[in-house]
Amino acid sequence: MSGTTSQLSVDGKTVDMAIKTGSIGPSVIDIAKLYAQTGMFTYDPGFTSTASCESEITYIDGDEGVLLHRGYPIEQLAEHGDFLETCYLLLYGELPTAAQKADFDYRVTRHTMVHEQMARFFQGFRRDAHPMAVLVGSIGAMSAFYHDSTDISDPQQRMIASMRLIAKMPTLAAMAYKYTIGQPFVYPLNSLDYTSNFLRMCFAVPAEEYKVNPVLSRALDRIFILHADHEQNASTSTVRLAGSSGANPFACIAAGTACLWGPAHGGANEAALRMLMEIGSVENIPKYIAKAKDKNDPFRLMGFGHRVYKNYDPRAKIMQKTTHEVLNELGIKDDPLLDVAIELERIALSDEYFIEKKLYPNIDFYSGITLKAMGFPTTMFTALFALARTVGWIAQWKEMIEDPSQRIGRPRQLYTGPTLREYTPIGRR
Ligand code: ACO
User: Fold this and answer.
1) Which of 27, 129, 254, 393 could form a disulfide with 139 if both were Cys (CB 3.0 to 4.6 A apart)?
2) First-to-last CA distance in the chain?
3) Which residue of 259, 289, 306 sits with most ligand 1 atoms within 8 Å of its CB, as the best mutation to test the pocket?
4) H or E element: which one contains 6?
5) Sequence-distant (≥ 6) Cβ neighbours of residue 55 within 8 angstroms
6) Which pTM was predicted?
7) For 327-363, b where at least 16 C-beta lie within 10 A, e where not — what string?
8) Helix segments in 70-130, DSSP class H
9) Is 275 in the pocket of ligand 1 (CB under 6 A)?
10) In terms of Cα–Cα distance, which of 124, 249, 113 is closest to 170?
């Protein structure tokens, strides 16, 4: 392999393939012409060695535990800025000036209400529906309400759709929650910031005044920042693949939301909290560690392990700090779940199995405890993740649509089914 090209020998024939280099991170071998040159495809189920696109948005170094958005470390964004600042950065590529930030906040805030008919649309769902089921349906339904921002060839419409999605996700997520508990929907209040507004839409009732707790609002805002984007994960790749066919942005984000729901992805925070509750007390931990290590037992420590991070997830560190801040603010001195989590983390981090496989706590390990303490039911956890990830999805979708070399995504396969055979009429089978 040379500096700029690599060679592959197939059936005695050598083909040259260009090596493309990014600004940081591993280079890639450009195999786009491989089929034309050799008649062969590459095989990489789970895409562990495959870069599906070029992107300028997010960089992860999984071995070092580094996460950068547009070059800025996640720790600095979470410490110094707010969620809408990170949204601006992801969408536009630069941190906003004070005037740009004020204008962006204003525009997002003015898009928070949803079409009144959406409220009636909600009535069609079963009362006990999972909020993620309601979200997938209602985000998809936005394409039926906002026709004036579905023309993806128009940059202005693309931006309006982006603003609408970022602004309306909290409203839809809060409505999904209110619907399942049988309380009236709470309309957004434009004098509040993005996250305080969301807390109010979730927890206020018309019968009494609701005061937003600024510590909880800041903590949740930070949780949103931590979840805002994570390069080409399963749900983002789903959004890109859906968008590559020219589908409208609301349909694409609904597809991403559906993918996020799975327990190996965004559903892990719900699964991690359920696991901590199932473990119940510190004495039971060794039994569960043994189950996680047993090859014949499908049990996995939820909130542990990551496809990309083979080191401590940088978001998990910030999340752990946020958990303590929230429990402190709420006066929760002894949370048995937190005790289980801390001890489980300690044992797992010193266990040979987890060390050897480089399994570290991921962001979902602590987020469940925090969200539960704030009053969110477990079924809402993934909905909150979807709310925060919407900006990442939309930024990646926009980047793809605006790339002149963009084509429909169409993976190939290794066919292992029957070869050609003659059809037998039903009477002779
Ligand atoms: N507990 C116990 N063993 C584990 C765990 C775990 N949580 N995660 C991975 N392993 C083991 C596997 O059994 C496998 O062992 P083997 O090599 O002996 O077969 C090895 O570690 C590698 O695991 P893979 O599943 O091949 O790793 P992959 O990169 O495909 O999966 C994933 C990553 C899905 C995150 C996995 O670690 C997992 O299921 N974790 C629990 C769910 C979770 O927390 N998901 C959240 C992801 S972060 C996010 O979406 C925000």
Assistant:
1) 254
2) 55
3) 306
4) strand 5-10
5) 231, 232, 396, 399
6) 0.92
7) bebeeeeebebbebbeebbeebeeeeebeeeebbbbb
8) 74-80, 83-92, 98-109, 116-122
9) no
10) 113
Ligand 1 atom, smallest distance to 300 CA: 1
Measure the CA–CA gap between 9 and 236, rounded to whole angstroms: 34
Gyration radius of the chain over CA positions: 23
Element (H, E) at 336: helix 336-350
- What is each CA distance from 96 to 104, 150, 407, in whole angstroms? 9, 26, 31
pLDDT tens sequence across 210-259: 999 999 999 999 999 999 999 999 999 999 999 999 999 999 999 999 99
Closest to 222 (Cα-Cα) out of 315, 297, 306: 315
Tell me which residue of 193, 222, 184, 186 sits closest to 326, measured CA to CA. 222
Residue nearest to atom 2 of ligand 1 (CA): 300
How far is it between the farthest Cα atoms of the chain?
Answer: 79
